[in-house]
């Protein structure tokens, strides 16, 4: 399947952010590197902030939604942490004081949305308020831990952090998610 134009622009932006702070990458530079006209950018994104938010959503949603369907929550968390390390410049810039709130809201919203959709798809019934609260608690807590980890230079080994995230999964959610140490019984 061919890559969409929007995905191509996002991937070009990510590639450029490996060499330069995303804050300093212009729309012109992105489109030149994409071999596209500047107008194409504005067909898909209203501005650079929209590109940043859509890039974050693309990275997170892709990792979460595709992996969670077939893999344990541990593997999803590991992949997300690895992806953050692979795109460290992009995430470090997102966690600057100017962008931090937007990053946290997008990350948490995406995490909650994907986990909620996973529960609905795999367990059918509407999710209780208590389960939804537990999902939010886990997602927001995970976000803070990942923020601190990245802010400290992502030095702690990914596998150690995944084990800590597994151990912090709220009891209400343990019945729904496989981890490295636990499997689901349907």
Automatic annotation (TrEMBL):
HTH tetR-type domain ranges (all copies): 3-63
This chain belongs to the protein called HTH tetR-type domain-containing protein
Organism source for this protein? Paucilactobacillus nenjiangensis
GO MF: DNA binding
Q: What UniProt keywords apply to this chain's record, in alphabetical order?
A: DNA-binding
Entry keyword Electron transport: no
Which InterPro entries does the protein's record reference?
Homeodomain-like_sf, HTH-type_Tx_Regulator, HTH_TetR, TetR_C_Firmicutes
PANTHER family, alphabetically? ACREF/ENVCD OPERON REPRESSOR-RELATED, ACREF_ENVCD OPERON REPRESSOR-RELATED
